[in-house]
Every structure is written in C-alpha cells, then in structure tokens.
Design brief:
The protein is 44% helix and 22% strand. The protein is of the alpha/beta class.
Length: 307
C-alpha cells in the first residue's frame, strides 16, 4: 500500500508535467525524436507539389495517370531513463533536491513518450544498477517510474556511470532514446583544489552507447555546487564518499580557487560530451527547467532540419 503523502507528491508532479507536455513540449518531443524509418501506407493520385521521386510507375502505367506512394513514419520508440540515485542527488539548497528535479524532468519526457505511443523504461543506478523497469506503455507504468525515482532507497551512496551504461548496452539491444539524468559528479570530495582528471572512466561507455542509441545527457546542478556562499567556517561532508573537511568559506582566495576548479571541471565535462558526440544540457534546481528543455528541443530540431 502506497502512503497517501507519496501518492499526493506523485499526483502533483503528474499534474504539473502533463500541463507542460500538453501546452508546450509534447509537440517538440515528437518533432525532435523521430521514428526508425518509413512504412508504406497507400497509393494515391499525384497532386501538384508532390515529390516526383514518390511516383509509383507501375500503378501510373496501369491507370494512365500518375499515382504516388504514400509512406508514414514508423513511430514507436523506446525511451530509456538512466537516473543517478547516488547520495549527491539528495542535495538541494534552493527549492527541490537534484533527485526531485530529475523525477520531474523524467516525468515530462515519459508523458511526452506515452502521448506519442512510445515505450518508457527506467534504470536507477549508483555504483551498480539497483532498479531496472523494462520499457512499457501507459499512464500507470509512468507513475510507477516516477515513484521509483523519488522514493527508491539506494544501497550505495556512490556513482558508477560506466557500469550503468555498460548495463544499458547489454539489456537494450534495439536502438532507443537514452536520457541520462545525473549531476555527473565523480566520487571525489567537491572541495578538493586539484582539477578533475581530463580522462573520465565513463567516456568509453558513453561512446559505445552513442553508437547504438540516441543519447541525451541532462546535467542537474545546484547553485551552491557552482559558487559557495560566504558563511564562515563550516564542516563539509561529501554525500558519496563520506569524507569531511573544515573549510573557511569567508576566505576569498580559497573560494576563488574552488570556483576556478569547478569551472575547470565543468569545461572538462562539456569536452567529454563533445568527444562522445552526445547532446547535453544543464538544468539547475534554482531555475525553471522548462526554458532549458525548450531551448534544447529547438536547437536539436534546427540541426535535424539542416541535416
């Protein structure tokens, strides 16, 4: 039996995201994520403006005037949501936690998918894939996906994206749309001054996934992970490693070095996405995500039309 407070929260997310899908993003989803091919539908008479290459010459010869073949998109797609459930997802300094925001974005994509008769699946991962829900259709299935993202109790606080991507490549054999929702923070204390390694262990797995699937990475960040406020001396504990440190956030030099490190890490992360030729966008817990998703869909649609 699901507790009433959990049902209420899931219902609130459903109402908010369904409105967004209906009014804005549903049509963009359909335009951006296309089917796997075209199926023959029917033959009809040629009309001015039709593509000449679509003329069916056999039917045209029999009927003594031109007919064309009409095709429809093979629409049914599979959307796999690969969601980071590690300890850092519990953090949220302004509004929702990163995990709550991941659930809401996943809800938008899932409701867009079932509205277009596509299937939705879920893989929740930490150091290992802890929960796998095979792709299916329907509202009840999507509500289950949202519930698991919000309320799954992870067994490990740490993250291994390479393991999750390898799992995906093993179990999803047909081409799918794969959306990775994560903060992409590696298992190292966030306050360390050393720059992040330019070689990320999950980059190879991401490249392999990209060769088979249409992969989109959604980086979820919190403003206090981008710029620490001046609140004096504090004890920081890493949510994934458990390491602690006493730092003086009032030290302007220390804060400047820390923010420079974060800029370096972000630049290296974006370079990793480019090397893997993977589409990516960043959303923040302190800003509406609708605009970021809308811009992403619009950019992707323009690129599709050009190419």
């Amino acid at each position: 039996m699901i507790p009433p407070e959990i049902l209420k929260k899931i219902r609130q997310i459903e109402i908010r995201t369904n409105r967004l899908v209906t009014e804005t993003l549903g049509g963009q989803y359909h335009s951006v994520f296309k089917g796997q091919g075209m199926n023959f539908d029917e033959v009809r008479e040629y009309q001015p403006g039709d593509e000449v290459r679509a003329i069916d010459w056999n039917v045209t010869a029999r009927m003594n005037h031109p007919f064309i073949k009409k095709f429809v998109e093979e629409r049914e797609l599979t959307v796999m949501l690969l969601v980071d459930a590690s300890g850092s997802g519990r953090f949220g300094s302004a509004g929702p936690s990163k995990r709550e925001l991941a659930a809401e974005i996943a809800s938008v994509l899932a409701f867009s998918a079932i509205r277009n008769n596509d299937k939705v699946g879920l893989a929740l991962f930490t150091r290992h894939v802890e929960k796998f829900i095979p792709p299916r259709k329907g509202r009840r299935h999507v509500l289950r996906v949202i519930r698991e993202i919000l309320f799954h109790a992870p067994q490990s606080p740490q993250t291994d994206l390479a393991e999750a991507l390898d799992f995906l490549n093993r179990v999803i054999t047909r081409r799918a749309i794969v959306v990775v929702l994560s903060d992409f923070l590696e298992n190292a204390p966030r306050w360390q001054r050393r720059p992040a390694s330019p070689t990320r262990p999950w980059l190879t797995a991401l490249r392999q996934a990209r060769r088979r699937h249409d992969v989109v990475c959604v980086q979820i960040t919190d403003p206090h992970e981008l710029a620490l406020p001046d609140v004096g001396r504090v004890v920081l504990q890493d949510a994934e490693t458990g390491e602690q440190a006493v730092v003086d956030t009032g030290d302007e030099q220390w804060r400047a070095v820390w923010q420079q490190q974060r800029r370096q890490q972000q630049a290296q992360l974006e370079q990793s996405f480019r090397l893997a030729r993977t589409d990516a966008l960043q959303v923040r817990t302190d800003q509406p995500y609708e605009a970021a998703l809308g811009r992403f869909f619009a950019t992707r649609e323009k690129r599709r039309l050009r190419g």
